């Protein structure tokens, strides 16, 4: 086995896209970043792509975005351990790793022996996919595509979402502007905006729902559920085979809500954080 570092996302896709598409829903983030980079989208331009291969067969793909941590696909434990050994001389003070539960654990065990660091699980997450929205009575309100008139509110809520969900995203001052301009941000409106979500339609068969956030004073009214269901239906109506979202596995309320909408679990992943041993 050996590790390949690709010079571009296009080169990565030539080798790994078939493997990634075998489980498109679980690999949606890497696929989206790769395709975004090939289109010159700024938020993906600092991402580098890797693959562990054996006899020219891809076994495990990974991406690393500057300022965050590697994201792994599912793969053999030996491949995950090899990737850890590959990364250690390059990024010896790596902040953490994200990947399917067993694959990430193999990487972490190898990394701990190399870096002599302390380990902490930052989040256990579950990936869901939906092929049909269950018709239930949702909260009152309407779906609205955000416009530039909403940018201050959307930026405020995006920052609050990242803090609350402990999510790290690339620093890109134009990201929200671009997402509004390409129609990716939606709001749930009653007599005022109460909830927001991002819809990504970058893949041929898959769209994703993310960054779902409801302002504190409007929670526990079902607005996020209604918004998620409406955006999910938008994805499916656009011709995608399924919609995908990621949840905090330790939040039973949100996991129950998404299953009521029609989402079904497909895999679990773990975000590990590394810190210097005391």
Verbal overview:
The chain has helices at 9-21, 28-38, 77-90, 101-115, 151-165, 175-181, 223-237, 252-261, and strands at residues 2-5, 47-54, 57-65, 70-72, 96-100, 117-130, 142-145, 185-189, 193-200, 206-214, 242-248, 264-276. By secondary structure, it is α+β, with helices and mostly antiparallel strands. The chain folds into 2 domains: 2-125 and 270-276, Aminopeptidase (3-Layer(aba) Sandwich); 130-268, Aminopeptidase. The strands form 2 sheets. An 8-stranded mixed sheet has the order 5-12-6-11-10-9-8-7, with helices on both faces. A 4-stranded antiparallel sheet has the order 1-2-3-4, sandwiched between helices. Helix 1 packs antiparallel against helix 2 (28-38) and helix 3 packs across helix 4 (101-115). The chain starts with a strand and ends with a strand. The mean pLDDT is 91.
CATH architecture of the largest domain: 3-Layer(aba) Sandwich
Would you tell me which CATH topology of the largest domain applies?
Aminopeptidase
Distance between the termini: 34 Å
Q: How many β-strands, per DSSP?
A: 12
> H/E series, N to C?
EHHEEEHEHEEHHEEEHEHE
- Unreliable segments (pLDDT under 50, ≥5 consecutive)? none
- CATH class of the largest domain, named Alpha Beta
CATH superfamily (homologous) name of the largest domain: Gcn5-related N-acetyltransferase (GNAT)
**How many helices in DSSP terms?**
8
Number of domains: 2
């Amino acid at each position: 086995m050996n590790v390949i570092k690709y010079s571009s996302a296009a080169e990565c896709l030539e080798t790994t896209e078939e493997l990634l598409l075998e489980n498109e829903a679980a690999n949606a983030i890497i696929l989206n970043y790769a395709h975004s980079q090939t289109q010159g989208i700024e938020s993906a331009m600092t991402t580098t792509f890797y693959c562990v291969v054996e006899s020219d067969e891809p076994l495990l793909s990974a991406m690393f975005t500057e300022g965050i941590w590697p994201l792994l696909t599912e793969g053999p434990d030996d491949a995950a351990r090899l990737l850890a050994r590959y990364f250690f001389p390059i990024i010896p003070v790596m902040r953490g790793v994200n990947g399917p539960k067993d694959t990430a654990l193999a990487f972490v065990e190898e990394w701990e022996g190399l870096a002599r660091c302390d380990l902490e699980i930052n989040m256990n997450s579950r990936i869901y996919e939906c092929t049909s929205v269950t018709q239930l009575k949702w909260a009152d309100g309407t779906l609205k595509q955000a416009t530039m008139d909403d940018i201050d509110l959307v930026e405020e809520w995006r920052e609050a979402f990242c803090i609350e969900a402990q999510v790290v995203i690339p620093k890109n001052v134009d990201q929200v502007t671009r997402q509004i301009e390409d129609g990716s941000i939606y709001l749930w409106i009653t007599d005022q905006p109460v909830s927001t979500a991002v819809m990504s339609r970058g893949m041929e068969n898959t769209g994703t729902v993310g960054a779902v956030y409801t302002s504190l004073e409007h929670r526990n009214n079902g607005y996020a559920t209604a918004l998620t269901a409406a955006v999910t239906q938008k994805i499916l109506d656009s011709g995608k085979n399924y919609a995908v979202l990621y949840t905090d596995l330790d939040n039973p309320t949100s996991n129950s809500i998404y299953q009521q909408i029609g989402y079904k679990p497909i895999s679990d992943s773990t975000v590990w954080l590394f810190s210097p041993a005391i």
